Automatic annotation (TrEMBL):
It is found in: Periplasm. Keywords: Signal. It comes from Actinopolyspora saharensis. Residues 1-23 form the signal peptide. GO terms for cellular component: periplasmic space. This is NitT/TauT family transport system substrate-binding protein. Residues 48-255 form the SsuA/THI5-like domain. Pfam families: NMT1 (PF09084). Belongs to the bacterial solute-binding protein SsuA/TauA family. Its main location: periplasm.
Length: 326
């Protein structure tokens, strides 16, 4: 009986040891097989993010060991609470909202990639030719649609109003998602709307016209948006952050060099028709993340009282892969 019990005990011990080894081995294989880091990323159906979709379509993220899951947010500022809470890992957003969040301590922002820079005709204050506002001066006391309050959309609209002698506080800014702006203009729900592509082209199809270009004069060539995470996420995912940055740099440069790829992609993620996509005015896609370029956004915010005067350390907000740091 003793020898039988000993044999059973030995067999059971061997079974448990080998069983644990098998379980550990299969778990290791699963991790090895996936071999990728999942990134939950907030984005918008705008021309700004075409390189992001280009990178997904061509498998650049997959090749870099990243699985990027996209979810739609209505505005760049809306993604910041989501990265702060961990609901998202990275979010697309406008630079004004990122800088304001950093300055106010809403989130410890770490920018990973530039996304979009405005050129003439890419960021317009639009109206209906038979509407209540025929001139910018007619906007006093009227409603202007912006996608989010206190972001680059509103800030460039305010700058445009001031440039044309209109007090920005004399108008009522109302929030509205970009896809809803063309119809709101046509229906007379607002006197004007601050619109980006591809919705500018859609608004034109409904009869809307340009009242003013929001990226001219003091806001010409303004950096519009980028991609950012929290500093905590970056510190815990240094390799993934670096891989994401490298992939986006490649995709940004490719989209910038071949705008026809952007036109082909737009109907796939913005739900506009291909014929409309061919009419879209496309800005530029910077392939490098540079503090010198973003200082123009800091200056714009300071000039509008949105940021305290004095030096703002924009460089500290930017992530540089370890092999790129000096």
């Amino acid at each position: 009986m003793f020898r039988t019990a000993l044999a059973l005990s030995t067999s059971l011990g061997l079974f448990l040891v080998s069983g644990c080894g098998l379980l550990s081995g299969s778990e290791g294989e699963a991790n090895s097989e996936s071999g990728s880091t999942t990134i939950n990323l907030g984005t918008m159906p705008a021309v700004d993010v075409a390189p992001l979709h280009l990178a997904k379509k061509k498998g650049y993220f997959k090749d870099a060991g990243l699985e990027v899951n996209l979810s739609t947010i209505p505005g760049g500022a809306r993604g910041i609470p989501k990265i702060a809470s961990g609901e998202l890992d990275i979010t697309f957003g406008n630079w004004v909202s990122f800088i304001r969040a950093q300055q106010k301590g809403t989130a410890d922002i770490k920018a990973l990639s530039d996304a979009y820079q405005a050129e003439e005709g890419t960021f317009l204050l639009m109206h209906m030719p038979n509407g209540r506002a025929q001139e910018i001066s007619d906007l006093k006391g009227e409603k202007i649609a912006v996608n989010t309050r206190g972001n680059l959309n509103e800030l460039t609209a305010r700058t445009t109003l001031k440039t044309h002698g209109v007090d920005p506080d004399s108008v009522e800014f109302v929030t509205m998602d970009f896809p809803d702006m063309p119809t709101a203009l046509r229906n007379g729900d607002v006197a004007a709307a601050s619109v980006i592509e591809p919705f500018i082209s859609r608004a034109n199809q409904l009869g809307a016209q340009t009242l003013a270009d929001q990226t001219s004069g003091p806001t010409a060539n303004m950096p519009i948006a980028g991609y950012a995470a929290t500093n905590d996420w970056v510190q815990n995912h240094q390799e993934a952050a670096a891989d994401f940055q490298r992939v986006m740099a490649k995709a940004q440069a490719e989209a910038n060099d071949d705008r026809s790829q952007v036109e082909q992609l737009l109907p796939q993620y913005t739900e506009i028709e291909p014929k409309t996509a061919s009419l879209v005015t496309i800005g530029s896609y910077p392939s490098t993340l540079e503090a010198s370029r973003l200082k123009s956004v800091v200056s714009l915010m300071q000039n509008n009282g949105e940021l305290p005067s004095g030096e703002f350390d924009i460089e500290s907000m930017l992530f540089h892969a370890p092999d790129e740091q000096q």
